[in-house]
């Protein structure tokens, strides 16, 4: 629940900045994007890693907001049986919806252990594996990927990633 409260606070900050920017004559979309950039710059400048990782949350919120403006809210596929989502960017909403879509694990290229998505995955005991870009590019649709619940407690785990075949390269846009 604290994660969603924190995201609600970020949304309030984005809305406040966007309203200010709309007052200067920017369109709603442009104001939201500029608000994202301003807040991301402030967060990135923080000396605290936990604050810097909120940049991804701001990007996630704004991406979903812009999709809603365009009535193009993205949805996850629901293939038959349990599956592992392979994605460059893992967001909190995707983790929250994982079980409903049969997702039993995630492979991603960028996720701090302090990110809201990582915290929520640990709380839900959904394994997450962070891989290098070259490992990610080697995954092809249909691969069998071995994940362990142990990685749910440490998404930066260096345990070997075993690719038994080739898998899907990216199921969601960056």
Describe the structure.
With about 170 residues, the chain is mainly alpha-helical. Helix content is about 45%, strand content about 10%. The protein contains 8 helices and 5 strands; from the N terminus they run ααααβαβαβαβαβ. It has helices at about 1-20, 30-45, 50, 55-70, 90-95, 115-125, 135-140, 150-155, and strands at about 85, 105-110, 130, 145, 160-165. The protein has a 3-stranded parallel sheet with strand order 1-2-3. Strands 4-5 form a two-stranded antiparallel ribbon. α1 packs across α2, α1 packs across α4 and α2 runs antiparallel to α4. It is globular, with a radius of gyration of 17 Å. The model is unreliable at about 160-174 (pLDDT under 50).
**Poorly predicted residue ranges:** 158-174
Structural class: mainly alpha
Q: Could you state the order of secondary-structure elements as H and E?
A: HHHHEHEHEHEHE
Largest sheet: 3 strands, parallel
* Tally of alpha and pi helices: 8
Cα-based radius of gyration, to the nearest Å: 17 Å
The proportion of residues in beta strands is 5-15%
Query: How far is the N terminus from the C terminus?
Result: 26 Å
Overall 3D form:
globular
Number of strands: 5
The spatial strand order of the largest sheet comes to 1-2-3
Q: What's the pLDDT, averaged over the residues? A: 77
Helix fraction bin: 40-55%
